Q: What sequence folds into this?
């Protein structure tokens, strides 16, 4: 009894940790969906790009992967603003338009990464030791990534609820026209929201790089995870993605006990379908 | 008069399509590209029916395509009868895909717009993961549709050594599907679909049974996509659930018909064919030009696609059509 129990407990802990990192990436997607009503199918590719940026900083300049997390945030914030200004702006609110545009972007990004970094899986080789408390043992990198992710989530939540810009982003997400009529510069807010959204993808990727192998085709899987989490939370609900991520993380790491490894994402998709059918507004409908 | 002219031009096109390939029968590569163009045009037409006419933007065409392909793959793998005679397997592939369409529709048509798109995407992913992890379906190894023993005539077993017969099969499938969508779009049924696309609530209020109409549409769309997938499986002789690109159940395969239809012109009958010419033909050309480095051709394609998307939002044929009307 206790061996199984320990295994389940240990997997739940790991699930929570990985789930929070997924939640960061999903938060970016949720933000972009909120301010621009765009489903970003290239989102996971930006996360993988963030992983590779972190990898390059480490191998070329010997910069610690911890330092490259804020660095990638800044870089991808710029990238996100540029993309918003020159691409996303033109497909605001269009379902097919945004899907096609971001899928085109995803093809470009994925193959760009294939071109530069080839298709072999790579990993940042840094050891952070391991910790164990009772029956649960956790890799040091996992713990570190988890703590960093938690800090980031808290910061984003504070930004969205306490600062003027953050509140403006939420206002535009809820009703862009009303926000504009009250004197908000919606274009500017979208620029910031888009930048922040992509920055969260890149930054989440940089955190993920602490614990995961990276390869160019990983992007699509991360995009799908982010989509699942967003729908679980309710599209555009940023705080909900935090819990959505944890639910997906736990569901998958518990499912792994019974199911073959490659089948675990299916658990997420079944959850996704169930939520779509029975509660299409998401599990957490309030902000 | 205009109507007669249109049919005449269609007939001339079909005549050319029937006669021309015999001139290039020896150029196998060219013929191969053309066959793939025809198959993808058919697949794109199924999406066109569902999305452009009925307004149900599906991201799950790969599900029907892949199920058709896997029906043929599994039948020829496990039964002697179908190995020697894949023809009925093609029909069965379409049948199973259409049933699946009804199932998916019954669940997903409760949802609208982006939620419908996401639900079909999820259904496809679930199917992909199950096939990928089941031994019965050979998982990630994929299925080789083995060449049947030569006990029957080649036509009977659809295992031709030359490409030309495949061309004619793919062509007739494409013409049939285009004709079906054309007839549907011009009928009363097409108008009802348009009413759903434009305002589903209003259509419902006026007494249109939108749910049943949508189910019928996904039934037709799924069955054609299924037969296309079956034919694809028989033609390429190998199927695999998730190799990227080319796996029959990937997101890429679901979005390919969307790209093709939008490039050619969504909501037009001929659009998917034009889009397929551009996408498949252009894609092959780019691969010849830039294939020296893995990924280069797809980068160029992606950039070109984004540019075309911005400058011709109605697609190639859609833009031409509006120009003609203005003149």
A:
């Amino acid at each position: 009894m206790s061996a199984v129990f320990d295994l389940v407990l240990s997997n739940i802990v790991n699930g929570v940790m990985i789930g929070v990192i997924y939640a960061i990436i999903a938060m970016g997607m949720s933000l972009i969906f909120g301010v621009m009503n765009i489903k970003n199918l290239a989102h996971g590719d930006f996360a993988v790009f963030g992983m590779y940026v972190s990898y390059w900083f480490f191998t070329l300049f010997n910069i610690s992967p911890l330092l490259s997390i804020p660095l990638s945030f800044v870089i991808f914030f710029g990238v996100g603003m540029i993309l918003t200004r020159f691409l996303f702006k033109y497909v605001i609110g269009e379902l097919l338009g945004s899907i096609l545009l971001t899928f085109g972007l995803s093809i470009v990004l994925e193959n760009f990464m294939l071109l530069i970094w080839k298709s072999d899986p790579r990993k940042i080789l840094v050891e952070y030791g391991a910790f164990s408390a009772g029956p649960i043992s956790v890799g040091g990198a996992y713990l570190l990534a988890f703590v960093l992710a938690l800090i980031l989530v808290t910061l984003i939540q504070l930004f969205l609820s306490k600062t003027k810009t953050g509140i403006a982003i939420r206002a535009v997400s809820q009703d862009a026209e009303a926000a504009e009529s009250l004197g908000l510069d919606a274009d500017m807010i979208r620029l910031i929201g888009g930048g922040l959204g992509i920055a969260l993808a890149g930054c989440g990727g940089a955190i993920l790089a602490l614990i995961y192998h990276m390869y160019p085709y990983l992007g699509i899987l991360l995009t799908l995870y982010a989509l699942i989490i967003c729908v679980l939370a309710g599209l555009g609900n940023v705080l909900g993605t935090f819990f959505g991520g944890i639910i997906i993380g736990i569901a998958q790491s518990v499912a792994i006990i019974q199911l073959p490894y490659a089948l675990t994402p299916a658990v997420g998709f079944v959850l996704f379908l169930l939520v779509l059918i029975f509660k299409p507004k998401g599990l957490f409908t309030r902000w | 008069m205009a109507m007669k002219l249109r049919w005449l031009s269609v007939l001339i096109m079909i005549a050319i399509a029937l006669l021309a390939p015999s001139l290039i029968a020896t150029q196998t590569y060219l013929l191969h590209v053309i066959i793939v163009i025809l198959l993808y045009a058919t697949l794109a037409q199924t999406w066109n029916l569902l999305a452009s006419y009925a307004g149900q933007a599906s991201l799950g065409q790969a599900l029907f395509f892949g199920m058709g392909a896997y029906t043929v793959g599994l039948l020829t793998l496990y039964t002697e009868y179908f190995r020697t005679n894949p023809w009925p397997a093609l029909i069965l592939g379409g049948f199973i895909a259409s049933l699946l369409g009804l199932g998916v529709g019954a669940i997903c048509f409760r949802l609208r717009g982006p939620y419908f798109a996401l639900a079909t995407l999820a259904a496809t992913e679930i199917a992909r993961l199950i096939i990928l992890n089941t031994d019965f379906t050979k998982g990630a190894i994929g299925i080789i549709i083995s060449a049947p023993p030569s006990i029957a005539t080649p036509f009977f077993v659809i295992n031709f050594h030359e490409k030309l017969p495949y061309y004619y099969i793919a062509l007739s499938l494409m013409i049939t599907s285009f004709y079906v969508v054309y007839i549907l779009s011009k009928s009363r049924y097409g108008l009802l679909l348009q009413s759903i696309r434009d305002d589903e609530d209003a259509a419902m209020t006026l007494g249109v049974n939108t749910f049943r109409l949508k189910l019928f549409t996904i039934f037709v769309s799924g069955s054609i996509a299924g037969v296309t997938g079956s034919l694809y499986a028989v033609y390429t002789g190998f199927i695999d659930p998730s190799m990227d690109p080319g796996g029959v159940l990937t997101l890429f395969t679901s979005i390919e018909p969307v790209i093709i239809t939008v490039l050619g012109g969504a909501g037009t009958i001929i659009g998917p064919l034009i889009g397929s010419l551009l996408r498949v033909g252009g894609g092959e050309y780019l691969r010849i030009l830039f294939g020296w480095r893995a990924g280069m051709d797809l980068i160029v394609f992606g950039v070109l696609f984004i540019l075309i998307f911005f400058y011709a939002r109605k697609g190639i044929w859609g833009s031409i059509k509006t120009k003609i009307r203005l003149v």
